[in-house]
Write a structure and sequence with these properties.
Length: 511
């Protein structure tokens, strides 16, 4: 039988038509099921578009305002909202332990779409990635050396670098003031905090080598790190497409550059002798396989985590604290008066006293409440093969993810009132009566076995650096700056990303 060109053309068109009909029918059936009362999450309210596909959430994440979107959803629908075909967002302090706690759930699928370093050397990345590991047993194994690295004894090893970098930071700002007309310096304080925290992270994790305070970001290390977080903050919502997204050359340059930087630092640190007990010294004391050195994929994973968690989050929190102090200058004046009494001019800062300064702690806590370092993406899911997990009076079926958004939880009037949207440090005062301040709903460092291992160091860093800055300088917004712009520029990139914060600085005393 001879096939003519017209017959082949007709056959080809028929195949295309059949494929189109099949695809449309398949998609229609998926949509119908996800919106139907037969779906296991059908009883939970939420926008139809969220119930249909997580692509909508990824689209919201492009703009970096997912934290505001989640807050709006909970205002409209209540404490439990269906934010994906198989995902719930829960804002209920009573359920936090059951979700994030010791007997809670392992991390959810969101983490599969968040990997930043697409390197051939990361074939075992998921096995060695502490922050993204979804196996509770393996996570506990990976967490042990991090817990040890931030114990009381190692903390003392980091203090020397912290004090030195704090002094360098204050000196750099002092030079700007003294070289400026009338002694008034004009700086983007957020940028200087980024330089400072990046340098300190380099000292703490890699034995030094980063000098952004001195030289600026001439190698674009910090810039690449911040830009590298953008695509993962989007692809985390559609992990099935993450590998394809990472393979696209356009727009992934910062991810590749940051990945190469992390690998280079891991190689450098793993091959050099320790001159002091930095973070990697403590992480390498004991490995999971009993060898002298940890496996290289684990070194890379630790390097990536140390760079992001040790620099970007701290810089954002420090910048937010300054923003609120300058926006509400009565707290800046009160803090200066308190610190002047405790640490007279030219006297050294007693680090042991810092945790006992009530006003300083209240100000830090309030900034962390309003702008937590991780605004939304604390996701958990029942363990694979478990069938599901009972959470309070709920049952979470296997295959369902649960996210707790700290930004929304921290501003919930059920847990923080009056005026949960306002910067009001007095809510943290023990003596305050007639206010709601539910500390079980305060999770800026996450909660449970996957909480921030470096919290003790982070709090010491926040207290010391703010004390150093506030003692030495008066601050106000630069002329023409709209203070509302700061919060408009904040973006949810898994960790909180910031814009510029133009500040006028002047020395408080003759130096």
């Amino acid at each position: 039988m001879v096939f003519s060109a017209s017959m082949l053309s007709s056959w080809y068109k028929a195949v295309l038509a059949s494929s189109f009909v099949f695809t449309v029918a398949l998609l229609a059936s998926i949509v119908a099921y996800r919106l139907s009362p037969f779906h296991p999450l059908s009883k939970y309210p939420g926008p139809y578009i969220c119930k249909i596909s997580k692509i909508w959430t990824a689209w919201i994440a492009v703009e970096g305002k997912l934290h505001l979107y989640h807050q709006d959803l909970h205002r409209r629908y209540g404490p439990i909202v269906r934010v994906g075909p198989n995902e719930l967002s829960i804002v209920d302090a009573d359920l936090v332990p059951a979700i994030l706690g010791v007997n809670g759930m392992p991390k959810g699928p969101l983490w599969d779409g968040r990997r930043i370093t697409p390197s051939k050397e990361l074939t075992k990345a998921n096995v060695n990635n502490l922050i993204g590991n979804r196996d509770s047993v393996r996570h506990a194994q990976l967490r042990k050396p991090w817990n040890r690295a931030f114990g009381p004894s190692p903390m003392q090893d980091y203090v020397e670098s912290l004090v030195a970098r704090g002094g360098q930071f204050a000196e750099a700002l002092e030079i700007i003031c003294k070289s400026s007309p009338k002694g008034i310096g004009h700086v983007d304080i957020a940028k200087y905090f980024s330089f400072l925290s990046f340098d300190f992270m380099g000292d703490m994790a890699f034995g030094g080598g980063f000098e952004l305070l001195r030289d600026g970001d001439k190698n674009k290390w910090r810039e690449n790190m911040e830009n590298a977080l953008i695509l993962p903050s989007i692809s985390q919502h559609i992990p099935w497409a993450a590998a394809a997204i990472r393979s696209i050359p356009l727009g992934t340059g910062s991810m590749r550059n940051f990945g190469a930087f992390a690998v280079a630092q891991a190689k450098r640190r793993s091959t050099q002798e320790s001159t002091k007990k930095d973070l990697f010294y403590h992480l390498a004391v004991q490995t999971d396989d009993g060898s002298d050195k940890p496996p290289f994929p684990l070194i890379i994973s630790n390097a990536t985590l140390a760079i992001i968690a040790g620099s970007d989050t701290t810089a954002s929190v420090l910048s937010n604290i300054v923003y609120y102090l300058v926006r509400y200058p009565e707290y800046l004046r009160r803090l200066q008066e308190d610190l002047d009494k405790r640490f007279p001019e030219y006297s050294a800062i007693d680090l042991d006293q810092l945790s006992h300064i009530e006003l300083l702690t209240m100000i830090i806590n309030e900034a962390l409440r309003l702008q937590p370092p991780v605004p939304t993406s604390l996701q958990r899911a029942p363990a694979i093969g478990s069938g599901g997990k009972a959470v309070g009076n709920m049952f979470i079926p296997e295959g369902t993810a649960v996210v707790i958004p700290p930004y929304t939880l921290h501003r919930d009037p059920r847990y923080f009132s009056p005026q949960p949207e306002k910067f009001w440090p007095e809510r943290w005062a023990e003596k305050e009566q007639g206010i709601i301040n539910n500390r079980s709903a305060f999770i800026p460092f996450s909660y449970g076995p996957a909480n921030c291992a470096g919290k003790p160091l982070a709090m010491l860093e926040l207290r010391f650096l703010m004390t150093t800055l506030v003692r030495k300088f008066d601050m106000s917004f630069d002329e023409g700056y709209d203070p509302d712009q700061w919060e408009r520029d904040l973006k949810d990139r898994f960790v909180l990303s910031k814009g510029e914060l133009p500040i006028k600085l002047s020395l408080r005393h003759d130096q």
